[in-house]
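To: structure subgroup
Subject: Chain for Friday's discussion

All,

I'm putting the inputs and outputs inline so they're searchable in the archive.
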Amino acid sequence: MTVRYFVPQFPSSGGQVTLPEAESHHASTVMRVREGEQVTLFDGKGYQADAKVVSIARKTVVCQAGAKIFLPRRNRSTIELAIAMPKGDRSRDLVERLTELGVDRLVPIHCQRSPWAISDGAIQKWQRVMIEACKQCRRNQIMQIAQPCRVTDFLAQPATKDERRWFAHPGGQKVDPNDQSAADNPTFRIAIGPEGGFTDQEADAAIVSGWSPVGLGERIYRIETAAIILSVKAADI
């Protein structure tokens, strides 16, 4: 499989492209690419290009790229997930899985039962994890990772036309996998609370704002499991 590198900007019609410093380091030191080797470049906006390595230095790798082609490899549905992120390696694994599943936007939310405050360092780490996952799964349109916000602020945002809004809550309605009422390119916004779930106050605020409670059966799932299940269900509708 051709190795992929993330380059936020490169010429539409092709030309010489210098990989960003981190990608150059990875190419030269970790992957040990050689001059003449074929690679793939992608810009995170849905475009990719075939390229050939033409020069290698310790901190700089230069490629000769062909013309861009638009190949986003995205779901039919647009999916935004707002999640009370778990701590440590669990958050890293979650970002990886959501990227692979084609989630378009991740919004870390702070709830009354959230166990930690999300730092700028955590956001930067998730960005790096997301890019690596895009490289691995051949995704060309990156997942946007928003700045953290309070769950009440997120829930109060106005809905757009034909938007589905779900929040994970025990006893909520089941998602119908055969639902044919969605638009041709539906948009889903999904909120998932911390381990203890949303408080009654948060759940009431969601319902008042037009969100539908959805349940996942009788078992209680971890945050990342619930996020994966609901992402797959949204992508399949």
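Points worth raising on Friday:
The longest strand covers residues 163-173.
The first helix runs from residue 21 to 30.

D.
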